[in-house]
Amino acid sequence: MKRRQFLKNTISTTIGTGIASSALANLSLSHHITNIDSKDIDARSNLEQEGLLNFVAIGDWGRNGADHQLQVAKQMGDWVTNHPNDFIVSTGDNFYPSGVISEHDPLWHYSFENVYTDFALQWDWYPILGNHDYKSDPDAQVRYTKISRRWKMPARYYSKTFNLKGKGKVLIAFIDTNPMIPEFYKNSEYGPHVAGQYPEKQLEWLDKLLSTQDPNIKWKIVVGHHPIYTVGPRTNNYDTLAVRKVLEVVLQKNKVDVYLSGHDHSLQHIKVENMNFHQFVSGSGSEATPVKAGLEITKFAASDYGFMYFAIDDKCISAKVINHQGIKLYDTTIHK
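The structure corresponding to this sequence follows.
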């Protein structure tokens, strides 16, 4: 009896296995093997292309959601949900009023993680340090890189090259302008954290980086917190003049295309005659301060809350200014 049952089970198993194997064989023969990646079936892949590389720039934002930070964050999320975007640039002053004391400071949640929650804003962030970030521990923002998947700040200054999908590359230098301001070394809040930074070494590094002869580099962009030129309250301020004194010559010598900054809490496009580079100020992620009218260097200036959106290909850079209500205030294109 046991032998009869064993044979019955064995025959059933063999027949079942044969049927399954036959079905699998037929399935494999009747269909081509596919090679689908996640990005191929992502709805974002159907967005209309606006450039070969796209990014958002926002600055001076970290106020626990206050003073229009939440409104700007919402519009930024809506914008990048409906437009191609590869990463987000922060132009500094990431945490008000006095930076963060560690990589575990609650402000990481109150001012960053719980504010920029839209799925489309979970892509990489490339931040730099502003003067308010220097009031506590600026290196805490470097260390947070090891905790956060999206926060990419490997050092106080660094660079990254981005591909233009086979049509060249974009070189972006993310610099720290705080040590370039002599007055900071005597300041009781900034002094302890700029001490030992050796700005001449950073400038030497930047000059060498930007002097590349790589023919694949189509555009050179430098991101620093303090503007070289501004039509905001700091037009002739000590920090603006200090940064201009040491940085302008490096940008001009190496034919930099764009200098992107924050610090003044407004949205600006500036072009100085006889200068190679265009200056953009995106510093109103959570506060807006006045701008001056009638200055010759002004291409655009608005005292409004918002952010900027850049679309780049091998021949041009398009820059758009979007405010906290989602209104496009300005649209310009720089040609190579």
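The chain has seven helices and 13 strands.
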